[in-house]
Write a structure and sequence with these properties.
- With 676 residues, the protein is mainly alpha-helical.
- The protein has 2 domains: 442 residues, no CATH class; 156 residues, no CATH class.
- The protein contains 30 helices and 7 strands.
- The chain has a 5-stranded mixed β-sheet. A two-stranded antiparallel sheet has the order 1-2.
- β1 and β2 form a beta hairpin.
- α3 packs across α4 and α25 runs antiparallel to α26.
- The longest helix has 27 residues.
- It is globular.
- The chain starts with 21 loop residues before the first helix and ends in a 12-residue tail after the last strand.
Length: 676
């Protein structure tokens, strides 16, 4: 099925790629290649990614170490990073390392492939909906998805774009390919693509399946067409078997109880419990408001597009089913209905909604530009361009202006009343939401003021452009004007991407030097200590230690109270973590009485202060006791924090550099490794 209606005369200037002159195709190919290389380079932190891995951890290096050298982790507290092994893709790291290819090299290649697959999937879906789309739309879409905050406002707070060489970008790209194949009528290929995605990241792929399910609902009584549903029934069977046998979801032994899950999982929560994260309250500009603004802008672009009614209906149904799934995830977390639903973080499905909305607005804004529809082109490009500048994306006043402008068109009401009514109700709901935020004191004058100024400046500029003879009667821009605006959009997207990357993927000198120092400590440990040595690091370190040291860790706050047990459900790991935190003075029942809500950042700061006060104590009594009971051979001290919290015990120094000192605990008798 071709999802498009016949192109309007003004669209005829946007020819298919096969009709593009070879010299232009070469130029576009060079442009895309440059963007791909730069995006990869940027997401590897401009070659400084090793400093990031050393400090933050949770990398594929940790996983590869644990597979190739399991004996090194005999005394390790489970940090949680090894749970990425549920994705079949990351097994490439240890496999290639056996062939002599270092994990760092594989990481760079994986990030490059992530970027490429996401952009390819997005472009394939874009050209499925709009075969005559101008190449500049493909370039702008790729830049936005990889080097801007355009999808930052998802309600699961995943902080896109995020390429770390594991699974996110791969699963994102594959589900976009699968959706495109579905709309092209290639149902078997779509189901196979989703099956591949399911082995990489089940949840992301599941949301793609749900979008397709919603799209198929548009057919009503024709939903059960056998040639369509049989491939997806087989896909569902494969998914169930994969979850049962590979993900081991049937094994419920030694799992955290429901009460324990809802007692401890919100403490350091980053994604799952929206009531503690402010996404609909004090942080609405980055999440709640931005997301709904994006959704309505996507509907407005869909209203104005040349797609036929069936394709529009399928897209809308797919997006609405994802919204319902997201609402289920939010309600489950808010009212603590089910640990499984909360862990699934169904609100992450909004990433796919944002992807589709971005695609629609990009395509329509480029079309408006080439057709001389200056008002829509200006505010559409402003909506998109803001994502290069700030993570408060999809500014709501500009978004509402875009949506309302589409709604007031007479043709809109005459041709697609159902979609117009839905969008109008959405505008009313968003306006009421903004008023409620105002009553709560969550609105900021500065957020609204700059949008008013931009719109006031855009209106007369668009009127001026209408008077300039750039538009050929009924046929869009003249060739020279079209080329000029193509260059302008490419330059704007390139400059925006460069600015975003240099702002958000460039490390400060202090961070880089500290990361290099911490990596040096890890490499020293790898080269100079027994393979089974157990280290205790600063308890407020996130996850960084095992990646380069290949040595066991006593753990950290993030691991004891979150990642060490949260994804696996390991009850024993949870209680080990609680005991270890207790040895540093953290009494959860006293600090955080049950049945109350707490801000995760406040919980973390409180725990960190207590833990570091005990850790950086000159008399060293607490550390000495822990070292004896757990048979810790080395303690890694951060000099910066030791000065702030009291100092270091006077123990033998095994290694030292500018930022770190490795101490040897003074216990004499050997004790068996175990819990006390």
């Amino acid at each position: 099925m071709n999802p498009n209606a016949e192109p309007s005369p003004a669209d005829m200037s946007m020819t298919r790629l096969k009709d593009t002159p070879p010299i232009e195709l070469v130029a576009w190919l060079i442009g895309f290649l440059a963007l791909w290389i730069f995006a990869t380079y940027a997401h590897l932190y401009f070659t400084e990614v090793e400093a990031v891995i050393a400090l933050r951890g949770w990398s594929a290096l940790d996983f590869s170490n644990s597979i190739l050298h399991p004996e090194n982790y005999e005394h390790d507290y489970p940090g949680g990073a090894r749970s990425i092994g549920r994705s079949i893709l990351v097994w490439a790291y240890p496999a290639l390392e056996k062939w002599g290819i270092e994990a760092e090299t594989t990481l760079a290649g994986m990030v490059a492939l992530e970027v490429l697959l996401l952009c390819s999937g997005a472009i394939f879906l874009l050209r499925t909906f709009f075969p005559r789309v101008h190449p500049v739309a493909m370039f702008a879409l790729s830049a936005l998805l990889t080097l801007s905050w355009i999808r930052h406002s998802d309600l699961g707070r995943i902080a896109n774009p995020f390429f770390h060489g594991q699974f996110y970008g791969f699963a994102d790209g594959l589900r976009l390919f699968a959706i495109a194949l579905f709309f092209r009528g290639r149902y078997q290929a779509s189901a196979l693509t989703l099956a591949l995605g399911f082995t990489i990241h089940p949840l992301k792929t599941l949301f793609g399946m749900i979008f397709i399910f919603g799209a198929q609902l548009w057919k009503g009584r024709r939903f059960f067409e056998l040639n369509i549903i049989i491939p997806f029934i087989l896909l569902t069977l494969f998914a169930v078997l994969w979850m049962w046998f590979w993900l081991d979801m049937g094994n419920m032994a030694n799992q955290v109880s429901r009460d324990e899950f809802f007692r401890f999982s919100p403490l350091f929560n980053s994604h799952w419990f929206p009531q503690d994260l402010g996404i609909f309250g004090q942080d609405h500009e980055r999440y709640g408001t931005a997301f709904f603004s994006a959704f309505l802008a996507g509907l407005a672009a869909l209203i104005r597009s040349e797609l036929n009614t069936e394709t529009k209906g399928k897209i809308v149904f797919g997006m609405f089913v994802l919204l319902l799934i997201s609402a289920l995830g939010i309600v489950s977390a808010w009212y603590e209905l089910s640990p499984l639903l909360v862990k699934s973080c169904l609100q992450r499905s909004t990433v796919l909604v944002l992807s589709v909305a971005t695609l629609l607005v990009v395509a329509q804004s480029v079309r408006d530009t080439m057709n001389g529809q200056w008002w829509f082109a200006a505010i559409g490009l402003l909506l998109l361009g803001s994502a290069f500048l700030d993570d408060s994306t999809w500014p709501v006043l500009i978004g509402l202006s875009y949506t309302i402008s589409a709604l007031v068109s007479r043709a809109t009401w005459q041709q697609q009343r159902w979609l117009t009514i839905i969008t109008t109700l959405g505008v009313i709901a968003l306006a009421c939401y903004q008023y409620a935020l105002f009553l709560k004191g969550y609105q900021h004058l500065s957020y609204w003021a700059w949008q008013v100024l931009v719109l006031l400046a855009a209106a007369p500029l668009c009127r001026l452009m209408d008077k300039v003879r750039l538009v050929r009667s009924g046929n869009g821009l003249s060739a020279h004007a079209s080329s000029m605006f193509t260059v302008l959009i490419v330059v704007a997207a390139s400059v925006g991407s460069w600015r975003w990357a240099n702002t958000n993927r460039t490390l400060s000198d202090a961070f880089k030097i500290k990361g290099e120092n911490y990596q040096a400590v890890q490499l020293w440990a790898h080269n100079n200590t027994p393979k089974t040595a157990l280290f205790m690091v600063d308890p407020c370190t996130t996850y960084g230690w095992r990646d380069y040291s290949n040595r066991s860790s006593f753990g950290s706050l993030q691991e004891w109270y979150k990642t060490g047990w949260l994804y696996s459900g390991d009850r024993q790991a949870l209680h080990q973590g609680i005991r270890r935190g207790g040895r540093l003075g953290i009494n959860i029942d006293v600090l955080l009485p049950a049945h109350k809500r707490y801000k995760p950042i406040q919980v973390y700061n409180a725990f960190c202060t207590i833990a570091r006060t005990s850790f950086y104590n000159q008399d060293g009594k607490i550390l000495a006791g822990i070292a004896q009971d757990y048979h810790i051979q080395y303690v890694v001290m951060d000099k910066t924090w030791s000065k702030r919290y009291g100092g270091m015990p006077d123990w033998a120094v095994a290694f030292e550099n500018r930022y770190y000192r490795v101490l040897v605990p003074p216990f004499e008798s050997e004790v068996s490794h175990g819990e006390s």
